[in-house]
Amino acid sequence: MLWERIYSPVKENQEEDSEEEPKLKYERLSNGVTEILQNDAASCMTVHDKFLALGTHFGKVFLLDIQGNATQKYEVSSVKINQISLDESGENVGICSEDGKVQVFGLYTREGFHESFDCPIKVVSLHPQFSRSNYKQFVTGGNKLLLYERNWLNRWKTLVLHEGEGTITNVKWRANLIAWANNLGVKIYDFSAKQRITNVLRDNVSLRPDMYPCSLCWKDDTTLIVGWGTSIKICVVRERNSTEMRDLPNRYVEIVSAFETEFFICGLAPLADQLVTLFFVQEHMDQMDEEVRARPRLDIIQPLPESCDEISSDALSVRFYQDNECRDYRLEHSEGESLFYIISPKDIVVAKERDQDDHIDWLLEKKKYEEALMAAEISFKNIKRHDVQKIGMAYINHLVENRDYDTAARKCQKVLGKNMELWENEVYRFKTIGQLKAISQYLPRGDLRLRPAIYEMILHEFLKTDYEGFATLIREWPGELYNNMAIVQAVNDHLKRDPTNSTLLTTLAELYTYDQRYDRALEIYLRLRHKDVYQLIHKHNLFSSIEDKIVLLMEFDKEKAVDMLLDNEDKISIDKVVVELDGRPELLHVYLHKLFKRDHHKGQKYHERQIGLYAEYDRPNLLPFLRDSTHCPLEKALEICQQRNFVEETVFLLSRMGNCRRALQMIMEELEDVDKAIEFAKEQDDAELWEDLICYSIDKPPFITGLLNNIGTHVDPILLIKRISEGMEIPNLRDSLVKILHDYNLQILLREGCKKILVADSLSLLQKMHRTQMRGVRVDEGNICESCHSAILPSDMAQPFSVVVFHCRHMFHKECLPSSGAIPGMQFCNICSAKRRGPGSGILEMKK
């Protein structure tokens, strides 16, 4: 077939380009059809899934393949062929012509019905199952509708289905329903029930039926679509309820949709739940004050109960449309493939639903490359004319033309995939347009890689213009992508011109790391005080290289340096660190302090030195250090604290050395803190200290107040109160005395409460013990004497016996027990009394 631009979308505003994608695509049926229509004109056509049947104005019928090539020709008449009908099998055909001829025959047998009537026969329709039926039914229509049926004698009999309402202009047979149109309206006949079930009247009676014929189309076995003039009705045949039957037909017709259109209807066809409608269009010319015939329109509409929505509308450039009338157009469709044939006297156009390739064509035409690429990726198994990668390349070219280099580079990653040749071509193209930076971050860097020269070219480009971008690529790209030594040399060349550039130095250190020259990298990191220096040391175990650089590391970041040194004591010893930091006592203190916090014993030989370091650089931690250290020389510590007048530390050391009275004296005289003095006395819990504290405080009213408030639970307050001089004014004395009394009452209450609890518990336990000891003990043949280990009961129960059972459940023959001992009449269990005096001290005696 030859593809041509034979349609244009109908737009509301012709000045605006339509952004709505067409629903159908069109092609002109050519090949043999072109030759036929050059000398003749098409009058009708019918469509089968396998072939086409075309009737002409000169009485010929051509069988065509779906490409339009003529496969067979029938000379039926010398005048116009009015209608051709095929059964579902495509093996039988019915033909009628303007001169009254009717032929119904098998395409492969030529046997059948051949008759000539004295009036034009406008329509013919075969039973859908004509080839399978024994009766070979078909209908014809001229001035009346006749049903033909072959009887058992192989003769044809005729039945008049309808007459008297003018010429029959159209007929359609579907399953058991026959629909036909005459001058007054549309009738439906139920072939199985042999009765007519409805009459749908024509709306616009002013139109000539021969000029504006009725269009009929069955959507399914029960839905009929009727188009006449500008009116469309959708009729559904339904089964009547048995209770409503009476004298009515078994079925009835419900019109579910009825609406008017703008133009005259030439043909109808279903498309899922939508309609394909062929319109005859006349346009009014203002200059000539008359209407002229315009291009016919093929619309897809969505029927509604009383209106419709237009989905798409295309004006068709059929040949010689200016000479055609409404009756010259026909619309036929193939249900199997959703093909629609627009027939005019000199042209046949095929419309079909657009596939994914057509959708991509339209997107590319509208330069919607991204949507086209996405559609191709989603439907890559179904597209036949397009290639995903070619569409992607077209998209990249479009982006480059529009100078959207970043997006173009990003799309390369998706489009080029694993094609290394295309990658290299794109890199060189981006180099030509000066956009290597754009594509650099998207280059392959995994298992699939480009040649090293490609990566080096990009690195050299960045090194010339963008040091930061160069550093980013070095960090992101694996070192195996390029020749590391070549890049190191290039960086060194640039450092000769700018030796203090920190970005280049950092990048050089990273390159040395890739090349496993860690000492060079470490030297640069330390010079730059770079945060990655510690990570480099840990990762590559460079502790032997930093033994003489500990001070530098500490100056850079004390916390990280100390943590690293302490975590790796097996690699750098404590003694080595102390030696290195000997000249920097402030750094040495930080190291030894963290060491002490981790383990109080590891650095014990440096504890004496730490006293001075704490006193000099970190006094708040001196007292905790003195408390926790067991290796600190107290005399040395006391000397340093006294020299520096550290009172709290001196007090602690004095108390630690046993000189508590001197420590208390310093608290009272130098700190003058009665609360701390009282707290110190409480900790020591020494009566002499309390006496010294009272003697020192007796002439100091604020101290007396503090003592009255706090000593009630440790010292008898009377001792203090008796020593207070008469007339001495003591602040808050009344409150202090009230507090002493309250504390005393509280102590009394606590003692009484404890006593009640103790008595109640004792009584409860005594009662429990009494109940336990009062319980009976079962003695039977299974028990034995714990002394002689024979049965506790005699075999002859008639003889007298004596058994002793203790509360511990041990049993003895009385004669087996030892004598009472020191206490006459008191016996104990031998077993339990050897361990403790408990439940075995009781006794239960059985005699008989």
TrEMBL record:
Provide the topology term for how it sits in the membrane: Peripheral membrane protein
PROSITE patterns reported in the protein's UniProt record: CHCR, ZF_RING_2
Q: Where in the cell is it found?
A: Endosome membrane; Late endosome membrane; Early endosome membrane; Lysosome membrane
* Entry-linked Pfam families: Beta-prop_Vps41 (PF23411), TPR_Vps41 (PF23556), zf-RING_Vps41 (PF23555)
**Which segments carry the CHCR repeats?**
562-706
Q: Which UniProt keywords apply?
A: Cytoplasmic vesicle, Endosome, Golgi apparatus, Lysosome, Metal-binding, Protein transport, Transport, Zinc, Zinc-finger
- Report the InterPro entries cross-referenced here: Beta-prop_Vps41, Clathrin_H-chain/VPS_repeat, TPR-like_helical_dom_sf, Vps41, Vps41/Vps8, WD40/YVTN_repeat-like_dom_sf, WD40_repeat_dom_sf, Znf_RING
Secretion signal span = none
Region Disordered, annotated ranges: 1-23
Question: Which residue intervals define the domain RING-type in the entry?
Answer: 785-833
Which CDD domains does the annotation name?
Answer: RING-H2_Vps41 (cd16690)
Task performed by this protein: Plays a role in vesicle-mediated protein trafficking to lysosomal compartments including the endocytic membrane transport pathways.
Q: Describe the family membership recorded for this protein in Swiss-Prot or TrEMBL.
A: Belongs to the VPS41 family.
The name under which this protein is listed is Vacuolar protein sorting-associated protein 41 homolog
Taxonomy-wise, where does this protein's organism fall, top ranks first? Eukaryota, Metazoa, Chordata, Craniata, Vertebrata
Gene giving rise to this polypeptide: VPS41
